[in-house]
Records
---
Amino acid sequence: MQAQMLAPAAILIAWSLVMLFWVAGTRFPAIAKSGIDIKAGPPGGRGQNLEGVLPDKVNWKAHNYAHLMEQPTIFYPAVIIIALMGASQWDVLAAWFYVGLRIVHSVYQATVNVVMVRFTIFFVSTLALIYLAIRAIALTLFHNPGVLA
């Protein structure tokens, strides 16, 4: 069951890279269209400097990419812990549920971005993550290798 538990994490990694390319594919043309010369800018510029300069809809993709670098950092170790300790079918289902909702959240934020709808998707995905965190704790805290010997 280890591979089945790790597969959602692999998909979320790939999805994060899709979002990275989506950011680049929308930001660079928008920068060119705005007339900004990124070569002439001050050194150390950041994507945040483009807030209020590029259209909001362009920046939404970058906002989502940043989100994919935040909460999923809890998801990845939880999935690894559960895979190492022995995943159940419910753990695998919760991991897929989390990843599916994160992908839906990404597409929604990058295109429509109504905050209350986006928050609801985020909140429900967080419930799956809470389940995974509790399972990781339970599998490690209550693990008794002597019982199996």
---
Amino acid sequence: MSMSKHEAASVFEWTVTGMDCGSCAGKIKGAVERLPGVSAVEVALMSERLRLQLDESQTQRQTVEKAVSALGFGISPRAGQEQGQSGKAAGCCGHEHHGHDHDDGHGHHHDHAHGDAHSHSHSHSHSHGHEDEKPLADGSRRAWHQTGKGRLVILTGALLALAWAAHFVLPPQVGAWVFTVACVIGVAPGARRAFAALAAGMPFTIEMLMTIAAAGALAIGAAEEAALVVFLFAVGEVLEGVAANRARDGIRALARLVPKTALLETDSGTRQVAAESLVPGQMVLVRPGDRIPADGVIRSGISGIDESPVTGESVPVTKGEGAEVFAGSINTEAALSVEVTRAAADNTIARIIKLVEEAESARAPTERFIDRFSRYYMPFIVLLAATVAVVPPLGFGGEWNTWIYRALSLLLIGCPCALVISVPASIASSLSAGARRGLLMKGGAVIEAIAQVKTVTFDKTGTLTAGRPQVVDVVPFGGFDVLEVISAAASVEAGSSHPLAKAILTRAQETGASVLPSSGARAMAGRGVEALVAGELLQVISPRHASETGLLPESAAAQAERLEGEGKTVVCVIRAGNLAGLLALRDEPREDAREAITQLERLGVGAIMLTGDNARTAAAIATGLGLTQRAELMPEDKVREVRALAASGGVMMVGDGINDAPALAQASVGVAMGSGTDVALETAHAAVLRDRVTDVPALIRLARKAMGNIHQNITIALGLKAVFLVTSILGITGLWLAIMADTGATVLVTLNALRLLAYDPAKEV
């Protein structure tokens, strides 16, 4: 049986260096996607990544690399790339307890990393260095003067200085020839790449426009200005490269958080090994002051852990035996023995970096609009330049040299690089700034959606509350005693990781109540859970469900109402169809929950609590926090509430990454709250890694700041282009100012985007 095209294709990744603007990504994409057997091409500017599906029976990897190299970019296989069939399965099963506002084991995955990096039609780019653009062995970048673009600046600058000296010392004809030589040598690298792009089917590149402009200027006798333009173009290229690398520094800084070496514990003592070689199950020694080399679990010792590199939380957290720790965190007090639980490629820092890098593919609607606009902008400018060069001389008797000169100026500002980079530069900076503070967003589309949020809906347990409830009341019924009630509930809840289940199991351990083996555990959505224990059916269900099924006597119902009125969550323990007792649990609100609601009010954002818990408990919690609530909601009810709220504007749903998966999916933005867990990183559109409710308004502030920055950049890019289009046609500005308008605008919008790196949304309240 022959394989389909999709089945034959494997996924390959490369690191591509020398990309300075969004146009560069479009140029690479346009070149490689024309190759046979190539599909699903993604080029990520800030993470310098090329990913595609390739059928090697049609095109070899080396052919792809040659196509990219021909355009003047450096390319090498990406470290640790996974090659093979693409695809990801998601979802897992578990049991739910919506009746008391919790459920267990929900896996819920959204893959929002779809979409192309840039349309192939954006094939307007700048010339680039090649192998010398690669990082050094320590991960740092070469100084600007050590790169190909830097050396070109030095060479063209020296030739220009020599030409001016010759102009003043030698006869004018000789000086003009020296300027001509300086211009030809300076434009040669760009011309070579221009024709390589033309051969790949991309005529509209800035290199081609530069070549035409330089040749035209020489033809009309403007050799001095042509040489100056070539030099300014080279300077602008260097500035763009420096600015782009500065924008990437935030992501690179994350990678440097994990130490290079680790102290591996062996039978013969400790020995130093490479941190990337650690595998799950190994034990490492972490001394005071050291960074933890891998995600793991503390097996011995107790110490303060500074998790600010991972979560942005500056206050060290005391952790002891059995506590989870993250790679890159700092051990502040005492020696720890840590068992490795994840390989280097899968640790929390690596997953954060991967999330930030892949977020570039989830492009904002604004970015997609700019891409569509740019698709027609450059051909329009070329047509306008041709019209300016021909119509005035032919139709109105204008001077040919004058109007050709003005047309050449138009060509030089025809590349919309500044416009194309205006959005991704701001998005990359905001993603990096957020990641350093424990605020993760999966791309520009998510940033734009967060900025437009009008209402935030919160899950209760583990989100607005601390997620550490305790059993505070046990009320036996039907002749059962306290220990029997606790034992029955704990036996049903055994194996569950939900906070309420853990509270019941903890109480069983404290009181010495036995936890018996169970079988046939089954979740009853919105009602509770049941299981067979010693051949007897036991249930832990909500009072409402117990009342509906006739299992809650009036006296017990009155007790349940009283406990719920005190802000407690009540569950009924049923044995063989009879009420055995009531358990009342209390989970206190997080310390910063009230402040978070206040901050949302200042932002003009409404807040609502959606919970499956009973109305009295929900009201007690909500009243204390100052927000409205909807209680006793089944999972489908929560989805319905979110959908109804969405009719009046964007809705954000905040949960603990496990609960309320359908509601998270229905919301405009689903936000998972959790300390770096797999679920928190993968479940929703965004995640707050610190257990802080105030990070929710901080996330909104960051997104709004990013969108404001994007609008500033678009204004700068379009404003400068508009001004110089008019002044070039009128003859007010010439070639050298035109090229400054192009490269200068690109540098300006990039530097403006870099301001986001220093923005701390938590401080602006």
